[in-house]
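Sequence only, no structure available. Ideas?
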Amino acid sequence: MRINFNVPPSTGKELEYIKQCIDAEKICGDGSFTKKCNKWFEERMKATKCLLTTSCTHATEMAAMLCDIKEGDEVIMPSYTFVSTADAFVLRGAKAVFVDIRPDTMNIDEKKIEEAITEKTRAIVPVHYAGVACEMDTILDIAKRHGLFVIEDAAQGVLASYKGQALGTIGDFGCYSFHETKNYSMGEGGALLIKDAKYIERAEIIREKGTDRSKYYRGQVDKYTWQDAGSSYLPSDMNAAYLYAQLEIADEINNRRLAIWDRYYSELKELEAAGRIELPVIPEGCVHNAHMFYIKTADISERTALKAFMEERGILTVFHYIPLHSAPAGKKYGRFSGEDVYTTRESERLLRLPLYYKLTDEDQSSVIDALKEFYGNR
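Reply:
I predicted one. Tokens follow.
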């Protein structure tokens, strides 16, 4: 038996749509499927503008450029996140200022943000871990009072929401990921969501290598020229075609993932009640998207033993981020504000269980039974 941690989503229409790109002789960026994906997100998320990108990393880099982040600036973020959250700003010469997380959601502790602000602070980057929203009302209030940008790292947050608003559309900019590990995938890819229309034209220029080629294709200029610093942030239309096949059945995928998540929660509740593990917390007002299901063990030693036990039974489980402030680059390019009360401790307890669109009921039963066996023997 082998139960993978993740299997990229697919619907059966991907090859058909990719062939349409080939037949149309339009496989580069901003083809018909890219436009369809952009429109889908704008309509579904009620976003002012969506621009598909080559990755969530690149979407965040674009946001950093649009915020005019410069050398010497500071950007506040959690340490418990993927390296891309920091890299996008470090590449601009900024310093990452890490803030402790909440132990219930693993999100940035909104109560610790204000004390991390200095005269050099330019932006706050809340990371919606596991598709569960940060406390955005508080974060937006802090940003408004201090004149800061809010850039949502919603890599894991597609189809999740906070008080009725789609994650990625609440701050000034939102960044999605369509990596193969995400709920909706194009292999590698992402999207930048823009709230204020005044940033759209420059965003298009940055995305098109610093040129106004988007305006040229729309017939707004008779030739395109180099207008600004930029890079090549356009994904192939074939990647967008792969993604669009999933967006057509986005609710079906979301509902299946939620059903898997709910079953894990229901059947593992007895282990939590017995004080053996802790389960995820979904705060009031947050609608999650079942991006992942994790448990928290007693400590790193127990997690290591559990992970090995599951692998012996052919079940792949994984832990997640090593806190950035403890990494060599984190020490070089960032600093931790305040005390690390929960970031390291909670990260060492967390273990993620298999969860993907086509996970079968039988395989999920095997995962649940193995967990109960492990704790039943201790």
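The mean pLDDT is 97.
Hope that gets you unstuck.
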